Automatic annotation (TrEMBL):
<dbReference type="InterPro" id="IPR015421">
    <property type="entry name" value="PyrdxlP-dep_Trfase_major"/>
</dbReference>
<feature type="modified residue" description="N6-(pyridoxal phosphate)lysine">
    <location>
        <position position="266"/>
    </location>
</feature>
<protein>
    <submittedName>
        <fullName>Tryptophanase/L-cysteine desulfhydrase</fullName>
    </submittedName>
</protein>
<dbReference type="InterPro" id="IPR001597">
    <property type="entry name" value="ArAA_b-elim_lyase/Thr_aldolase"/>
</dbReference>
<dbReference type="GO" id="GO:0016830">
    <property type="term" value="F:carbon-carbon lyase activity"/>
</dbReference>
<feature type="domain" description="Aromatic amino acid beta-eliminating lyase/threonine aldolase">
    <location>
        <begin position="55"/>
        <end position="428"/>
    </location>
</feature>
<keyword id="KW-0456">Lyase</keyword>
<dbReference type="GO" id="GO:0009072">
    <property type="term" value="P:aromatic amino acid metabolic process"/>
</dbReference>
<keyword id="KW-0663">Pyridoxal phosphate</keyword>
<dbReference type="InterPro" id="IPR011166">
    <property type="entry name" value="Beta-eliminating_lyase"/>
</dbReference>
<dbReference type="Pfam" id="PF01212">
    <property type="entry name" value="Beta_elim_lyase"/>
</dbReference>
<dbReference type="InterPro" id="IPR015424">
    <property type="entry name" value="PyrdxlP-dep_Trfase"/>
</dbReference>
<comment type="similarity">
    <text>Belongs to the beta-eliminating lyase family.</text>
</comment>
<dbReference type="InterPro" id="IPR015422">
    <property type="entry name" value="PyrdxlP-dep_Trfase_small"/>
</dbReference>
């Protein structure tokens, strides 16, 4: 939404909403932040929010709701079975995502569990543009393997390619020929590919994937958790859709998939999730798994209040001004950091800004987790909590060896409609300072490593006294300032 021009020529993302509920934030002294890191094993997932100033860990379940969502929550119909709230949500799914059948699940990964349980068998292969942590964990849990089929351009940090999330069509066909269509339960396409920096794919790319899926009779599963923003960027970047509405683009995309699932913690700024399809046979195959894992078919583990919020939130996804704030703030911060020389994933994607720790911390070997170290250092000097998206977020291979990530990123999530521009400018300022003092950042090592999804609860420690040195430099430059 860059339609509003400033007389002074500045290009500033103007918020088209106002703040009517506020939550006080706390900026604690740097010494307390060091203690907090020590208590939390230098893992930002394990910090307590009382020590966090700007929480940029994730955009999951942390988005600001609208007045209409909050109002709808008050009208929720509490019933174990047949709740009116559910039928309103079912209608919203059909209106917005264009799918007739909807199965509620408590969050996105629950959909991944159900789909993997239903379709993935030992020895199967699931081709995808790129993995998401929980999607991969469920596929491998059921004995499957994944094949990531992005184009090389996707791994270029400083790129101007508008659709780095595109599936490599030639590789897809090759993989199908080598492994055989019958060993491929589905092709997974992730909108706004999360782990490579929230990078979108184009509608044309999805059409090309559809053509191959049809040729080999394989289903397409669309992970639509970040579909709204992907559609927003399609309108901005794909010529054919420059005059299309959000609703038109989203329906074209979901229409190209056999199964659509999503985390409502992102799509619709509420909590919950779902699986939807137009295919009655698929619906029948999956239906029985919802009461087994989630809850009865008209609530699926989601509270009725959240069901109402999801229904309204889905309709609000059709409104570009409700979707634009997060991606526009991200583009603002990406451009600002880039201008200061801080290496960030370009072009700007969705859900957050992704700082390239491999470059910022080129002096830290990958076995000492440069992205984890950068996330810890940023929290230490600013109270900003980001998330490691690098080798710590990877899982070890079947022999217990480290699998180093293609990219070592620190993600600074920009939850929808939560932060103000001065807070974004604070992020710009502190990240720039840290970049200029990057030589002081040192590595980390595990002291406690859980066997599954280790990044959530794992504990680490610094390999030297680098945090103390960083604090000393911070005090030299900022004095007693927090
Ligand atoms: C967050 C996310 C998921 C998982 O959703 P949860 O609600 O956190 O379980 C799956 N896919 C993508 C692309 C996501 O961003």
């Amino acid at each position: 939404m860059n339609e509003i021009k400033f007389y002074n020529g500045e290009n500033i993302p103007l918020e088209l909403h106002k703040v009517r509920i506020v939550q006080k934030l706390h900026l604690v002294p740097i010494e307390r932040r060091l203690e907090a890191l020590q208590e939390g094993g230098f893992n930002t997932f394990r910090l307590n929010t009382k020590d966090v100033f700007l929480d940029m860990l994730t955009d999951s379940g942390t988005n600001a709701m609208s007045d209409n969502q909050l109002a709808a929550m008050m009208q929720a119909d509490d019933a174990y079975a047949g709740s009116q709230s559910f039928f309103r949500l079912q209608k919203a799914v059909e209106d917005v995502l264009g799918k007739k059948y909807y199965l509620p699940v408590h969050q996105g990964r629950a959909a991944e569990n159900i789909l993997s349980n239903a379709y993935v068998r030992k020895g199967n292969l699931v081709p995808m543009n790129y993995h998401f942590t929980t999607a991969m964990a469920h596929i491998t849990q059921y004995g499957g393997k994944i094949a990531e089929l992005l184009y090389d351009e996707a791994y270029v940090i400083n790129s101007s390619h508008p659709f780095k999330g595109n599936m490599n069509i030639e590789k897809l066909e090759e993989v199908i020929k080598v492994h055989g269509a019958k060993n491929i339960p589905f092709i997974r396409m992730e909108a706004s590919t999360n782990l490579i920096g929230g990078q979108p794919f184009s509608v044309q790319n999805l059409r090309d994937v559809r053509a191959i899926a049809d040729k080999y009779n394989i289903r397409i599963v669309l992970d639509a958790s970040l579909l709204g923003e992907n559609a927003y960027l399609v309108i901005q970047r794909e010529e054919e859709f420059k005059d299309s509405t959000m609703g038109e683009v989203m329906k074209i995309m979901t229409g190209l998939a056999d199964i659509v699932y999503f985390s409502a913690r992102k799509l619709s700024s509420s909590r919950g999730g779902g699986i939807c399809t137009d295919n009655a046979d698929i619906y029948k195959e999956l239906e029985a798994l919802v009461p087994l894992f989630e809850g009865f078919l008209t609530y699926g583990g989601i509270s009725v209040r959240e069901i109402e919020a999801m229904a309204v939130g889905l309709y609000e996804t059709l409104d570009e001004t409700m979707i634009s704030q997060s991606p526009d703030f991200i583009a603002y911060l990406v451009n600002a950091l880039d201008a200061h020389g801080v290496p960030v994933v370009k072009p700007a994607g969705v859900l957050g800004v992704h700082v390239d720790a491999m470059q910022v911390c080129e002096h830290i070997p990958q076995k000492e987790y440069p992205a984890g170290a950068l996330a810890a250092a940023l929290f230490l000097i600013s109270g900003i909590r980001g998330m490691e998206r690098g080798s710590i977020s990877n899982q070890r291979d079947e022999y217990g060896n480290e699998t180093y990530a293609d990219m070592e990123l620190v993600r600074l999530a920009v939850p929808r409609r939560v932060f103000t521009l001065s807070q974004i400018k604070y992020v710009e300022d502190r990240m720039t300072w840290l970049y200029e003092n990057r030589a002081l950042i040192g590595g980390l090592r595990f002291v406690y490593e859980p066997p599954v999804l280790r990044f959530f609860m794992g504990g680490l420690e610094p390999v030297s006294d680098w945090p103390q040195k960083l604090i000393a430099k911070f005090k030299e430059d900022f004095g007693e300032s927090l």
